[in-house]
Specification:
The chain has one domain: TerB-like, CATH 1.10.3680. Helices cover about 65% and strands about 0% of the residues. It is built from six helices and no strands. The chain is mainly α and about 130 residues long. The chain is globular, with a radius of gyration of 14 Å.
């Protein structure tokens, strides 16, 4: 949604983080894989090879408040894409929130927004 607003180094770091979050529960679900592919296309990084960077190294790349908001919104999208939030995902989200210095109310607003978008996307269409 907002990934084109990131700088090149941030885009690569985001892709590393997204892949890390998608595989943190020990598997790469059929719901998470299309989201990663979409991210690659959106950021024009289809040929980017995941390096397996540590989460602390990834998070250091994001310095601007705007970039941090984009990262949290998009990471929440991938975490909620399969409908299950695993303990490792929760712990990683907590680490991201703490590293970025997010206020719990702001996080709750982002989370509610993402869950609402997911519900809207799954809402059946009527003729």
């Amino acid at each position: 949604m907002f990934l084109t607003k990131l700088q090149q180094e941030e885009k690569e770091a985001f892709l590393e983080l997204a892949y890390l979050m998608a595989t943190i529960d020990g598997k790469f679900s059929v719901f998470e894989n299309p989201v990663i592919v979409k991210y690659q296309k959106e950021m024009d990084l289809e040929d980017y090879k995941i390096k397996g960077l540590a989460i602390d190294d990834i998070l250091k790349v994001f310095k601007e408040e705007r970039s941090k908001h984009i990262v949290l919104i998009e990471i929440l999208r991938i975490v909620y894409s399969d409908g299950i939030v695993h303990e490792n995902e929760q712990n990683s989200i907590r680490l991201i929130k703490e590293h970025f210095g997010f206020d719990p109310n702001k996080y709750a607003s982002f989370k509610d927004w993402i869950v609402g978008i997911k519900e809207l996307a799954n809402y059946p269409e009527h003729d």
